[in-house]
Amino acid sequence: MSVRADAETLRQIPIFRECESVPLQIMAFAADRQEFSIGEEILTEDKKVRAAFFVLNGSVDLRRSGQSIGRAEPGSLLGEVAMIGGNPSTLTAKALDIVSTARISHELFLRVAKEYPEFGRVVLHNLSEKLVNSVREYESVRVLLTKARKFSDL
């Protein structure tokens, strides 16, 4: 893919949806290309994340506490919240076949955000919305669990 095409694909990811083209193109251009073999871990649950991985080709198995929670396909971004916050990954991502990624390091993200402050503001705003929505989902589940007399009532 071209840098412009990669940047437009990045824009489809919710945290980048309102970002200008130039910072996205810089990230797409400067990101390191990294390939993973079948069965190789891209992210490891509870391990600190120093980069997000933009899936270019291949399929990725996503697991939390050993349980499969889904798949990531080309166009997916893995580990972005943990990368930005410098936190551990909340899941394990393992290559199901040969997977090509664009590795966006913490340092690259911060440099682009520093040089393009509006980009950083938009990304952080979108991340905060993502987190608020997650908290709302957890709250609705908590309410259901509180009201249920037994699990079969759910």
Textual characterization of the structure:
By secondary structure, the protein is of the alpha+beta class. Helices cover 43% and strands 25% of the residues. The protein has a single domain, classed as Sandwich (Jelly Rolls), CATH 2.60.120.10. Helix 1 (3-11) crosses helix 2, helix 2 runs antiparallel to helix 4 and helix 4 packs across helix 5. It contains five helices and eight strands, in the order H-H-E-E-E-E-E-E-H-E-E-H-H. The longest helix has 31 residues, at 117-147. The strands form two sheets. The chain has a four-stranded antiparallel β-sheet. It has a four-stranded antiparallel β-sheet with strand order 2-7-4-5, with no helix packed on it. The model has no long low-confidence stretch (mean pLDDT 90).
